[in-house]
From TrEMBL:
GO molecular function: complement component C3b binding
Domain Sushi: 1-57, 60-118, 119-176, 177-230
Keyword set, alphabetical order: Disulfide bond, Signal, Sushi
Record-annotated disulphide pairs: C62-C105, C178-C221
One GO CC term on file: extracellular space
The protein's name: CFH
One GO-annotated biological process of the protein: complement activation
Length: 230
């Protein structure tokens, strides 16, 4: 007969009972412990319990921190890490953390991974008749690019675009000056005539004698061209 009195580093609900030879009982070890050869049962033999009622610590430590292309380890590296221990990572430049930045050692295995999303921007939008002042191959999230219109072109909209989570905001436009306004049949321009007109300039027309105005009585300079005269 075998008597079950005590299970070191584990527990069994029916302790102090007696068992006949050949009887097998199931036991449970504490986390990080196991019976010999990772068994979870013991059998009563003529020499007593086999395996012995002792839960021994199993190899649950983790070694060799995993490496990630877009994240780097924070802290001092160690030779080994206990089961349940967590380590932290941070995202590399141009990346942003999306979720937890830790992984955990669980029974000799690393569980989890930091998720780093690429939020950088490349290729700022090209604007006709403009140059980029600080053009680079790649930009961090939140960085700005400034445009400058060439020659006599005027800028419309924000002079900067911003990299937001991998996408550029709306770029400006560069609009040009206009030459002399377009003539119209049976009408005259009443505004002062000049060789060049700034963007959004407006000239007014009036009809000659015996003619009546139809439509708008002016023309506007838009992107280097005049709108259709009356």
């Amino acid at each position: 007969q075998c008597t079950f009195n005590y299970l070191e580093n584990g527990y069994y609900t029916n302790s102090h009972e007696k068992y006949l030879q050949g009887k097998t009982v199931r036991v449970r070890c504490h986390d990080g412990y196991s019976l010999h050869n990772n068994q979870n049962t013991m059998t009563c033999t003529e020499k007593g319990w086999y395996p012995p009622p002792i839960c021994v610590r199993v190899g649950t430590d983790c070694f060799n921190l995993p490496s990630f292309d877009d994240a780097v380890f924070i802290g001092q590296k160690k030779k080994s890490y206990r089961s349940g221990e967590e380590v932290a990572f941070k995202c590399r430049p141009y990346y942003q953390l999306n979720g937890s930045n830790t992984i955990q050692c669980v029974k000799s295995k690393w569980i989890g991974r930091p998720v780093c999303k690429d939020v950088s921007c490349v290729n700022p939008p090209r604007v006709e008749n403009a140059v980029i002042q600080n053009d680079r191959p790649r930009y961090l999230n939140g960085e700005r690019v400034r445009y400058e219109c060439i020659g006599t072109y005027d800028i419309l909209g924000d002079v900067d675009v911003t990299c937001l989570n991998g996408t550029w905001t709306k770029p400006p436009q560069c609009k040009g000056e206009c030459g002399p306004p377009l003539p119209t049949d049976n009408g005259d321009i009443t505004s002062l005539l000049t060789p060049l007109y700034p963007l959004r300039s407006l000239v007014e027309y009036q009809c000659q004698a015996y003619y009546e105005l139809q439509g708008n009585g002016n023309s506007v300079c838009q992107n280097g061209e005049w709108s259709e005269p009356p």
